[in-house]
Amino acid sequence: PVEIVPGCFYWPGWFDRGEQEALAEDLRQVLAQAPLFTPRMPRTGKPFSVRMSNCGPLGWVSDETGYRYQPTHPETGAPWPPMPARLLAAWRALAGSPWAPEACLINWYAPGARMGLHQDRDEEEFGAPVLSLSLGDTALFRVGGTSRKDPTRSIRLASGDALLLSGPARLAFHGIDRILPDTSTLLKQPGRINLTLRRVHRGE
Ligand code: MD3
Ligand code: FE
User: Fold this and answer.
1) Closest CA to 50 of 203, 194, 163, 196
2) N or C: which end of the chain has fewer CB within 10 A?
């Protein structure tokens, strides 16, 4: 892999086209059980431009009352569907963690959606890495340091790419500046899916 900033490892083209198609089909089945919802900012209730769902024992949600992990879908009340075996295999191959991932957040970016610079701090375990997998249109991804003022680097995350955030990069500021239109034929509609596999609790 290529180290983008300390602890941020990048595998361009980790999944070949056939594997990407199989993963996209896995996700269609997950989303049939756990439909995309529109998260809202704490306090203000302002909607995110990104829509979300989850699979695995826990899922990340955000509403007027705050950010949290919970075992059920915020709208249907059903447990999140299990993580597809293909995702668990990618975690085992790349994460270097003895513990299984507890949550897989599914982010759906329609053209024009973005995600502002932020840190991921809702997990109790920052020692475990986060694994990000991209499908569909290419995203312009930005990553900096642990202070918002630190300089940032941009890379394009294309369909099939994998990114591991570990060590000092685990608490780095990061975001998605924009989705580049017409850069992939994988999905049946224009846009991008990002998957992030995470540990929420300390391993035991
Ligand atoms: C750096 N997702 O879900 S993936 C997120 O493309 C998130 O949907 C973006 O930021 C997306 O929280 C970026 C790359 C990524 C994911 C998690 C990180 C970078 C990260 C956690 C810590 C540091
Ligand atoms: Fe994030």
Assistant:
1) 194
2) C
Q: What is the pLDDT of residue 20?
A: 98
How large is the greatest C-alpha to C-alpha distance in the chain, in angstroms? 44
* Beta carbons of 19 and 71 less than 8 angstroms apart: no
ipTM, interface predicted TM-score of the complex: 0.98
Render the burial of 163-192: b for 16+ CB within 10 Å, e for the rest: bbbbeebbebbbbbeebeeebbebbeebbb
User: If you ran DSSP here, which 8-state letter would residue 114 be given?
Assistant: -
Query: 3-state DSSP call for residue 118?
Result: strand
Q: What are the two backbone dihedrals, phi and then psi, of residue 182, each rounded to the nearest 5 degrees?
A: 55, 40
Taken in order of first residue, the domains within the chain and their CATH numbers are 2-198 (2.60.120.590)
- Measured between alpha carbons, how far is 7 from 16 in angstroms, rounded to an integer? 24
How close is the Cα of 171 to the center of ligand 2, in Å?
A: 9
The answer on pLDDT for 13 being more than 90 is yes
The answer to whether the CB of 120 is under 6 A from ligand 1 is: yes
Ion ligand 2 — residues with CB < 5 Å: 120
Check whether 204 has a pLDDT greater than 90: no
Which residue in the block uniquely carries the two structure tokens 């826990």? 58
